[in-house]
Amino acid sequence: MSNITAVTLQHQDGMPPYLLSTMYFIAVVLPKLQAFLSTFMVVLGTSLLAVGIYRFQKRASKVVYDYIPVDTLSSSASHQRSAL
Questions:
Q1: Taken in order 7, 13, 19, 24, is the CA torsion positive or negative?
Q2: Cβ-proximal residues to 9 (8 Å cutoff; 6+ apart), any chain
Q3: Quick check: 24 and 5 in contact, CB under 8 A?
Q4: Complete DSSP assignment for 9-38
Q5: 37-67 tens-digit pLDDT
Q6: In this structure, are residues 9 and 23 in contact, taking their beta carbons and an 8 Å threshold?
Q7: What are phi and psi of 67, to 5 degrees?
Q8: Separation between Cα atoms, residue 43 and residue 35, nearest integer Å
Q9: What is the DSSP letter of 71?
Q10: Of 9, 16, 53, 82, which is most buried with the most CB atoms under 10 A?
Q11: Is the pTM higher than 0.70?
């Protein structure tokens, strides 16, 4: 056990075991876990942001051919006129 835990648990003789384990978790485990989780979340957020920017730039630079050719319009219009 670390010095913090030894000092903290030294004066807690009559406490129930679940409180002692909770105090141990808060004093020893949580700071190490918090550093790992914070680092993991920063790396994950940065990578998701980079993927989002990459996808946005890829989609913005893509040429979209979503139009009807002019000759198709004129031929269909002439067919409609001849039918009338």
A1: positive
A2: 1, 20, 23, 24
A3: yes
A4: HHT-TTS-HHHHHHHHIIIIIHHHHHHHHH
A5: 999 999 999 999 999 999 988 887 766 666 6
A6: yes
A7: -145, 165
A8: 12
A9: H
A10: 9
A11: no
